[in-house]
Specification:
single chain, alpha/beta, D-amino Acid Aminotransferase, Chain A, domain 1, D-amino Acid Aminotransferase, Chain A, domain 2, 2 domains, eight-stranded mixed sheet, three-stranded antiparallel sheet, 7 helices, 11 strands, 23% helix, 22% strand, globular, catalytic activity, BCAT-like_C, Aminotransferase-like
């Protein structure tokens, strides 16, 4: 079970706002037993070597590596391990669940879950934490990938990306990753997207600002004028204020200057334009905006 959370150091004003959201929306709409905090992680035996081969030259890609006990798996075999720990604990604090999950505790639980698995292959791990502090881990197969940052360099379009028919309300469940995912399921249903299809759908808020895709964050190419007065292109991803999930891959890309935050309106999206889709399971892949999905799906 996670450790008891220390007393917060944020201001009374911020605590009051969080309490208001907690009481007025979350507790008024859901029982805390109805959802769990979720983090979907990638175990990959080729890490970190396979990632370092593709990290842009100006980025170190270094993280703190926890030394495991004899025979155990080190933290650098779990993609973006540090980012997952940070987000899990932020979410625990946001929902006022009086626990924290240390990096070592998470690593120990991941190792325990993998004891009976074939760790020579990549795996998807769904880490779920309940309001009672209990941690449950589901393990599923996932495709091998020799370059988790492939979308940053390839011109090959892998995914078709449509736009949802209806807006999605911004709630704590769009900003924080939990098992309460009805809004994503509905968007996929609207677009007739099934599991395994290389398709996704842009989700946007009632003000028509892009939030994300149904299974990943998203970025677009946009132009701006630099300090020298030159017009240059760069990747931009919607800011958290628009209601998108605080994704771990998103955090890493922003932290390392690979993209910037900028609001994107649905009306400014053009059919045929490239997008990046990214999460901590598949890394970064490239997609293309389509008006309609193709007839066949591989």
């Amino acid at each position: 079970m996670p450790n008891k959370r220390p007393e917060p150091t944020v201001s009374a004003e911020h605590i009051a706002v969080a309490n208001s959201v907690q009481n007025d929306y979350i507790k008024g709409t859901y029982n805390e037993e109805d959802f769990q905090i979720l983090s979907t992680m990638r175990y990959d035996p080729t890490l970190p070597a396979s990632l370092s081969d593709h990290v842009p030259k100006n980025i170190s890609g270094e993280t703190t590596v926890l030394k495991p006990s004899a025979g155990a798996i080190a933290s650098d075999k779990f993609f973006l391990f540090d980012e997952h720990v940070k987000r899990i604990n932020f979410s625990l604090g946001y929902f006022h669940w009086d626990y924290e999950l240390s990096a070592q505790m998470l690593l120990d639980k991941l190792n325990a879950a993998l004891e009976v698995e074939d760790v020579s292959k990549s795996l998807k791990l769904r880490v779920m934490i309940g309001n009672d502090g209990k941690v449950r881990i589901e393990i599923h197969p996932t495709p091998e990938c020799d370059n988790l940052l492939a979308g940053l360099t390839t011109e090959l379009t892998l995914w078709e990306v449509g736009i949802d028919k209806n807006p999605t309300d911004v709630t704590p469940f769009t900003s924080l990753k939990t098992t309460q995912r009805d809004h994503y399921d509905q968007s996929r249903k609207n677009s007739r997207i099934e599991v395994g299809m290389k398709r996704d759908v842009i989700i946007y808020n009632p003000s028509k600002y892009v939030m994300e895709c149904s299974i990943s964050n998203v970025a677009f190419v946009r132009k701006h004028e630099n300090a020298a007065g030159e017009t240059v292109e760069r990747w931009v991803t919607p800011p958290l204020v628009c209601g998108c999930i605080c994704g771990t891959m998103r955090s890493w890309l922003l932290k390392n200057g690979i993209m910037e935050e900028e609001p994107v309106m649905v009306k400014d999206i053009r059919v045929g334009e490239p997008v990046l889709m990214f999460n901590a399971l598949m890394g970064v892949v490239k997609g293309k905006i389509v008006a309609e999905f193709s007839e066949s799906e591989a």
